[in-house]
Amino acid sequence: MREREILDRSPQPYPSQSTRNWNPRLQLRTSNTRPTVKVGAPSMTRAVLNLLVIISVSHFRQLHSPTNIILLSLAVSDFLVGLLLLPLEIYRNTTCWYLGEIMCAVYYYLGCQIPFVSIGNIILISVDRYVAICHPLHYPTRITAVRVKLCVFLCWLWYGLYSIFYIQDQIIHLIKPDKDVSCLGQCSIIFSYVTGVADLILTFIIPVTAIVLLYMRVFVVAVIQARSMRSHVTFVSVQHPSKVKAKRSELKAARTLGVLVFTYLLCFCPLYCYTFIDINLIDTSNQYLLTGLFYFNSCLNPVIYTLFYPWFRKAVKLIITLQILKPDSCVTNIL
User: Fold this and answer.
1) What is the DSSP letter of 141?
2) Which of 76, 151, 168, 306 has the smallest number of Cβ neighbours within 10 A?
3) How far apart (Å, rounded) are the C-alpha atoms in residues 114 and 111?
4) Ramachandran bin of 11, using left for φ above 0, alpha for ψ from -120 to 50, beta for the remaining angles
5) Quick check: 85 and 110 in contact, CB under 8 A?
6) Which of 322, 242, 311, 302 is CA-nearest to residue 61?
7) Rounded to two decimals, what is the model's pTM?
8) Domains of the chain and CATH, by start
9) DSSP class of residue 2?
10) pLDDT tens digits for range 76-110
11) Could you give the CA distance from residue 269 to residue 204 in angstroms, rounded to a whole number?
């Protein structure tokens, strides 16, 4: 089977060995010490920012809406990037790997699952906004909290199982150790060109195409609705003021989440696109920029919430001042 080779230049106790690796997420693991530290230095900041989102949505009952449940799932995946993925990446790229083969498998498993779950959450957000804007009358019945929780659970379960596919060789090696392929202090993964192409289609082309098509439709309908509201605002506001407020709220939510989706694609797509064009990513100076951009997204979402969501600013204030420790703080009017 035809395979492409990439040189693993992370520090090793032995001369560098050739590893076959086409997955762009896994290529981020092959860099020298300085750039990796620059990429991973704010890992705790990412964790803290997303922890604020997790506490806000989980604690305050008014925020337990279907859309916010998806945002909560996205915050959890971004939180895990800062808490687990980046520290492990920094360790692997700044010293020899002495955490053992089990932790090596866990490291690569997280490196696949967490980005997968993030893109899955973005798809769910796009579907949520599509139904809310394009089929508003059906939204309360189709997009319920129970259904969204089930979709989020299935998203984590599916990508959790799918990510096992990428470490199957390491699992087999753990069951039946092969001393000939072992190298003390090295943590690498091997898979074929065909596997890389399948990964590109399943985790990039199909999801991104679906997201773009859904939000293009949302954008068109939102523009039409906005024009309609402006032309009939006087009559409708007198006869049905609650409907006007609801429509404006949905359009504002679509705009805010559209910014979130756009920034995610802006950080997510360049790495995949460049890897598709130039497979030997680690031999180019663009690696550091693309790596930083890829991981930078995990701390962008809380910033977006701060800029566009007054409820998040209010929730953070209550969290920082420890007001959430008071009895019945979960029923605070935060919207």
Assistant:
1) H
2) 168
3) 6
4) beta
5) yes
6) 311
7) 0.80
8) 6-331 (1.20.1070.10)
9) -
10) 999 998 888 888 877 777 778 888 888 888 888 99
11) 8
